[in-house]
Fold LONP2 protease.
Amino acid sequence: MAAGSAIQIPTRLPLLLTHESVLLPGSTMRTSVDSPRNMQLVRSRLLKGTSLRSTIIGVIPNTSDPTSDCDDLPNLHRIGTAALAVQVVGSNWPKPHYTLLVTGLCRFQILQLLKEKPYPVAEVQQLDRLEQFTNGHKSEEELGELSEQFYKYAVQLVEMLDMSVPAVAKLRRLLDNLPREALPDILTSIIRTSNQEKLQILDAVRLEERFKMTIPLLVRQIEGLKLLQKTRKSKQDDDKRVVAIRPNRRITHGSITEDEEEEEDHDDVVMLEKKIRTSSMSEQALKVCLKEIKRLKKMPQSMPEYALTRNYLELMVELPWNKSTKDRLEIRAARIVLDNDHYAMEKLKKRVLEYLAVRQLKNNLKGPILCFVGPPGVGKTSVGRSIAKTLGREFHRIALGGVCDQSDIRGHRRTYVGSMPGRIINGLKTVGVNNPVFLLDEVDKLAKSLQGDPAAALLEVLDPEQNHSFTDHYLNVAFDLSQVLFIATANTTATIPPALLDRMEVIQVPGYTQEEKIEIAHRHLIPKQLELHGLTPQQIQIPQVTTLGIITRYTREAGVRALDRKLGAICRAVAVKVAEGQHREAKPDRAEVGEGEDCKEHITEDAKPESISDTADLSLPPEMPILIDFHALKDILGPPMYDMEVT
Ligand code: ADP
């Protein structure tokens, strides 16, 4: 196609300047065009032209087109390749550009640059001609020898490749069918060569020179291939050796690390088995676990059941089958703890102490389950926590609000991936002992659904006659719950399922009066919030009248939860002030704040300590302690939500 063919290229050629790659005669290349002159060439010559002639362009390598068409042309590479533009594809993304597919025809030399704008055009002289070969300086014989040598190397190289690949077979046929003088260019563009080397081949106008230059490139490629084949072979030998050492193992390419992993997992399974054997689980559980571990050993790890079984066994090992805390019940100490933690609630505390005393005497937990019924925030949960504290037991709260599926309590059967134990077994795993205090929170909010009645499952959990062999569906073996102390809470008895209510001793926890709330706030809530926010009584002062203000104007509840939250908000605001004050220099002249006038009636007794609102000028460090008066309340909590008169 190239040298020696009858192609006569036009004597004037538009020039496409390329920098990244070198097009050699007989090969095809894709090139991206985005510089102004090159774009112009594509637009006005390739896209507008209609004749075959107009698709022939000169590709000049090693010359980048200037980014602006006002810039002068750089020095053009002397020799280029006349090419046929086979395809033009335009795109606007990421910026306007064309992609050209060009096939090299023959070399040419620039004789004279005819114009530079809008794209360069030059008068050229075709260099690759058949006459050049026959009329060359060297005798036919000599070149024939050179080309024969080249041909042999080329055949050797191609035959080292995989002949089953169609392109390789085609290349082999081409070696025989193409004129010999075309081979150096074609093979140079196929084998691994740098742009610099390609450029040198392009510049090698004399055929003899071209042959001489490409032979070392071919030899280099052949040596490279030989080395590659050698290393591949030795790797295969290594693999075979590994197979021989471990005849039972399935070995594929690169699987040595997989094997190591498998071995590690195998060790894990052995460890797990050891743990199972040394754990204190019940006999029935041990039997099941040993059976499962046997299955696990035979199972391929890729099976979903492998992970399922392993998780199951790990849970079985972790469960506190025989682990418990020692009860340290002393009624007098219990009374002190309850009194210290809670203000008022006399009736409740009395009943709890009775309950604990009977337990101490009888030394078992059979009997009704205590159920604290009352509005939110009256301290039901917190009494439960105190009971655990007095007994020296772990405490775990199980929220039942909205539970409508019995498998939430009793677990899912292990028949599908994703099955889990129920909340009771999960709770036991969390606390790690088998005698915690479980607070079943909001039993009145249990719901029924198609997935079964959770209340019925709960009955089994709470029934002292049955719960020593509670069977969670996931575990599928009995677990003894008889040591767990259950306490329930509810907002109302009306919605507690009757069968469940029957098992419980309801203790009403009424709401608090304003006075009680104030006491609770000052004895418990405020000290707790101060500690939470890293504040001390020397930094903040909340007078009782302010607390009353919060209770009456900012909250409307039977319990003290919202009151607690508001106190938290106040502490946060004060913490900011204190932190700011620590970083700020005091200013000598203090600004008077007249804004507080209309709130005077709210301001406390003697407003000697600094009020937070008086420090509206943030540049002033607050004086300690910061007094929370009504003005400050308004600042922090916003305008009162409720009217005093209403309460
Ligand atoms: P409930 O479980 O009844 O909804 P919580 O036990 O969560 O309420 O109580 C909310 C907050 O109020 C807790 O921080 C608790 O310590 C506090 N609290 C409630 N009643 C009292 C009380 N009588 N004495 C001290 N703190 C109380």
